[in-house]
Structure formats: structure tokens, C-alpha cells
Amino acid sequence: MRKTLVILIIVACAVTGLFAVMGYYAYKHYTDKYVHVEVANCSNAEHITDEMLKDLPTLKKALEIAEKRGEVTLKITVEEFNKMRYLSGHCVEYRGKTYRIYLITP
User: Fold this and answer.
1) Could you report the per-residue pLDDT of 6-61, keeping only the tens digit for each?
2) Contact status, residue 73 vs residue 104, Cβ threshold 8 Å
């Protein structure tokens, strides 16, 4: 009887641990989003302004850093990721330079 109870407790702990690990990775997959911006030569770039970037602060920061370094990858919120889905893989013109934007999920 005692042996069976110990085995049941061990199995319950193992199952609980498995679900905890699976939940953690599902949460990380949902929340880990990145934007990659690189300087590019594009003739079909969409012009964006500071006013358009008011709701996309991380993208604005990425564009400013990419202007200096040539490229950058920053972590973004899920909300901002969803707002700029339409820009992924496209070129934008910002302050006279063109950039290509990629959205990344692990």
C-alpha cells in the first residue's frame, strides 16, 4: 500500500512538472517576439513618419539604431508585433534612408 502511494506521488509530480515545462515554453513562444531592421537599397519603400511610429516605439528605436550600426535586432511586445505585421519583409523609408524590416518569432 505504502509503495503504491509513493509511486503515485512520483508519477503525479512528474506529470505536473511536464505540464509546467510545456506551459513555460508555450508562454515564451507567445511572448518572445523580435524585430530586425537593416539598411537596404529598395526602390519600392513605403515612407513612414514619426507620427506613424508614435504607436511603435520599439520600431522607431530600431530604425534609429540601424541608421548608426547598419542593422539591429530588438525584442518587442506582442501588441507592437501585431501592429506591425504588415511591415514584415517590406522596405520602409525613414528620414531619407531605406530599411528592410523583419519580424522574428522563435
Assistant:
1) 899 998 899 999 998 888 887 777 778 999 999 998 888 889 888 888 989 999 99
2) yes
Give the whole-angstrom CA distance, residue 4 versus residue 7.
5
Residues 25, 39 within the same domain = no
Exposure on the CB side of residue 21, measured as CA atoms within 13 A: 6
- Domain containing residue 2: 1-31
Check whether residue 1 and residue 41 sit in a common domain.
no
Q: Are 22 and 66 in contact (CB under 8 A)?
A: no
This prediction has a pTM of: 0.73
For the chain, how long is the longest CA-to-CA vector?
Answer: 77
Q: How many helices (H) and strands (E) does the chain have?
A: 3, 5
The rounded distance, in Å, linking the Cα atoms of 81 and 28 is 14
Q: How far apart are CA 59 and CA 98, in angstroms?
A: 14
Find cell 511591415 and name the residue: 87
